Amino acid sequence: MDPITALKIASTVGGLFYSNKLRQEAKGRNRELSRSIDKQVSNLEGTLPSIDEFTEGLIDLEMDESSVRSDRNFLDFLRQSEDLSSNLSETIKQSDLVFSGDLQNKFETDKFFLESNLRIREDAGSLNRERNLLNILTRKEDQKSSVANEIFSLKTQQMGLDV
After folding, report:
1. The pTM is what?
2. CA separation for the pair 47, 37 (Å, rounded)
3. Are 118 and 69 in contact (CB under 8 A)?
4. CA–CA dist 29, 21 (Å, integer)
5. Hey, where are the domains in the chain?
6. CA-based angle 52:58:61, to the nearest 5?
7. Measuring CA to CA, which residue among 129, 126, 138 is closest to residue 55?
8. Quick one: CA dihedral 80, 82, 85, 86, positive or negative?
9. Residues 84, 117: contact at Cβ < 8 Å?
């Protein structure tokens, strides 16, 4: 065998060994990267129950706040009704009985207005509560979707690794 052919063979064999060594090193780095991705995926999957727990807390808080708002509206109604009754009693005492029928009609009208106002405030409170709950649940699903997309992206990257 002539020396040039032997040199070409030796160079080719050396290149193969070097290429194999580089491929093994790359596989080692890819295995490390794959383990890192597994940890990230595990951490992200661990956040899903936290999102659910946090959402439950927000829902409980909204329900409590809604109840407080409803109680406050009812107390305002009671206070205004009491004030209206007191004013009627004082006015009847101070005026003669001829005008008491007109005062009673005005009282009934004002009382009806207060009751209507309470119903409107209760309905508005219910709508606000429903809107707030919908926003909470929408944010929850957005967050869970974002985490799922991130997990998918990481797993896709991991599938492209030669380990």
Report:
1. 0.69
2. 15
3. no
4. 13
5. 3-159
6. 145
7. 138
8. negative
9. no
Q: How far apart are CA 73 and CA 119, in angstroms?
A: 10
What is the residue type of 78? Answer: L
13, 22, 39 from 10: Cα distances, Å: 5, 18, 44
What Rg, from alpha-carbon coordinates, does the chain have?
Answer: 38
Q: Give 91-149 pLDDT, tens digit per residue.
A: 777 666 555 667 778 888 888 998 898 899 899 999 999 999 999 999 999 999 999 99
Let me know how long the chain is.
163
| Furthest CA-CA distance within the chain | 138
Dig out the tokens for 10 from the structure: 């030796």
- 143 Cβ contact list (under 8 Å, min separation 6): 51
By the 8 A CB rule, do 163 and 28 touch? no
